[in-house]
Specification:
The protein contains 2 helices and 8 strands, in the order ββααββββββ. With 122 residues, it is mostly beta strands. It has one domain. It is elongated. The N and C termini lie close together (6 Å). About 10% of the residues have low confidence.
């Protein structure tokens, strides 16, 4: 359980994966035995007391494999850092993670409070 990132989703770049992260594990255990990971990520929006709020939300299904899903709101460049994080949510079969709701200004060029990103790994 080292927490190696295998892939994920970014609000500004879509889905991504690290082929080298899965290639090593497939040599140890065949893909048919471990299943194939399926990951979904998205940004969610709501209004709370008249104010726009946003959060990152991710799900991963990876049958028979201990894995995690991690959701974060991250600052847009040139700033860096994490605004909100779910932490890693570990499990077998299916995992789900989401950040807290964060107030934001949808009229700002950077969406006012960062981009949603989700990650999965093992």
């Amino acid at each position: 359980m080292d927490g190696t990132v295998v892939g994920g989703w970014s609000e500004d770049g879509g889905y991504f994966s690290d082929p080298s992260a899965t290639a090593v594990s497939e040599e140890i255990m065949p893909a048919a035995a471990t299943g194939t990971p399926r990951h979904t990520g998205k940004a969610e929006y709501t209004i709370i007391n008249g104010t726009s709020h946003k959060r990152a939300h991710g799900w991963t299904t990876w049958t028979g494999v201990l894995h995690y899903t991690h959701a974060r709101l991250e600052h847009y460049w040139p700033h860096s850092g994490v605004i909100a994080s779910s932490g890693r949510r570990w499990g077998k079969g299916g995992t789900e993670a989401y950040t807290r709701w964060v107030a934001y200004n949808p009229n700002k060029p950077s969406n006012g409070n960062g981009k949603a990103r989700t990650y999965y790994g093992k």
